[in-house]
Amino acid sequence: MCSEVTRPSAKVVFCWHMHQPDYRDRLTGEYYFPWTYLHALKDYTDMLAHLEAHPGARAVVNFAPILLEQLDDYLLQLDQYLDRGEAIRDPMLAALTKDALPAPGTEAFQTLAENCLRAHRDRMVERFAPYRALVQLFEQTLEAPQGLNYLNEQFLIDMLVWYHLAWLGEHQRRSGSHIKALQKKAGGFTMEDRRTLLSVIADQIRLIKPGYRKLQEQGRIELAMSPYAHPILPLLIDLGSAREAMPNVALPQASQYPGGEARAHWHLQHGLSVFEEYFGCRPKGCWASEGALSDATLALLSEESFLWSATGDSVLHNSIKHKANAGLAPKHLHRAYQFEGSDLYTFFRDDGLSDLIGFQYADWHAEDAVGDLINHLVNIANQSNDSENCVISIIMDGENAWEYYPENAWHFLEALYRRISDHPRLEMTTYEAALSERKLEPVSLKHMVAGSWVYGTFSTWIGDRDKNRAWDMLCEAKAVYDQSIETLDEEEREAAALQLAQCEGSDWFWWFGDYNPSESVRDFDYLYRRHLINLYTLLKQPAPEYLKSAFSHGGGSPAAGGVMRKGHAEGAA
Q1: Stated pTM of the model
Q2: Fewest CB within 10 angstroms: 29, 90, 442, 457, which?
Q3: Which domains are present in the chain?
Q4: Could you tell me which residues come within 8 angstroms of residue 345 by beta carbon, excluding any fewer than 6 positions away?
């Protein structure tokens, strides 16, 4: 009897992208929204705990440098409060420290209570009976004239505590004795209870830097980065690059972003500086913001000595069909590619597999979901005619998907790492390890059609009326920046450059447009205009009158509230 030939395993790379825009007002230090520290508590810590618990697991963890700055700032604020009683500059965290909260019946009371509703209703509110009861009581009072007058300060304190308890990661919920005690107490929380909660929050944020750094040093993860403030690099370099995948797209009135290539360089170089200071190492890979790539962006990444980058599979499909690549015989999706003019390795996200995790598996039993994913992975491995060079890329947001899963995807992620790291046909690895341990043979193409992981285009950030208006606002501000920057001293120039970076981030443009929810569009419209006004202030120039009025209003109801998108447009192949 002939023995069965053992087929080589296929490499599987999970790349988790951690990103929040800068919610700070750089002039006051105040945070407008709490999402950075809340995702730190719920997601960055849980993702770390899962990786620590599975020594055989491997993953790429990509951080936006502007997020790392905010994590350090939050930890500093918490320590200064706990040590010396100094004020915290995030309103939601600060509310936990106040001796007196807004009086019942006031607008401030209602606003603070409504902010405590901003959690996934099924997975984060309904899960905890005391929190659910508080929310239901609040909603009932809103239906009655002057109903809020019947609530008291203790109600608001308990809402605040439960809001933060619900946002805690599952690892801390299961192992932290203080959190177990607070959940058991259920209500009537005291100032001592609130201080205990704040101490836990500080300790959780404190774990992030050394935890990920240690796993990187052990070779169990690869740490990668995005450009500093998460701008869409191809659009900074050339607004017209949007036409490569969307020939008929309507572009802003401004023909180009002034000095965009220099700003793209700045975001990479400053991002590297922040990343190296935080983690103590230089990253080999760059998930360019939103996987937004073009030939010019690839060349820029090569100049900065990055080894690899990645984007969505629609970009590959568009590139293969381009006339510049006619006659070439590209291999399948799950390969490393190189494009003419760049020695950078480019990988392509398997949008189908990534979107299964992002949009479908949340309602499955964890073992069934992981089993289904493994079946897909093994099928790809079996169909590959070159297993040595087969790299399956699952790239997705490492934070927003999990609140749609039971218990913050604790069971799903545990099963994912356990079963795939032990599978005989699958090898969990990182891009750096795959490229260094076994030299991959790249597929060569002449031209990349510029695009992102979302639909293979830049339609999420440009082309819509409101998005184009935002670009024109930014281009006008950048022209003023260029005219004014030399009149400032060195410290003032640095502050203005950082403020400009905030305005250049991708998140504002993501949210503008009628298809997004009104509440989110309102928040990001306000914050974008606030950042631009601050830029004019730092440049010592008057801000345009139009920045006083909202220009985007939303009104849609997209899947997952708009925080996540599928890689392919509905109905696309």
Answers
A1: 0.96
A2: 29
A3: 10-22+28-68+218-459 (3.20.110.20), 72-210 (no CATH), 465-557 (no CATH)
A4: 307, 308, 309, 336, 337, 338, 431, 435, 440, 442
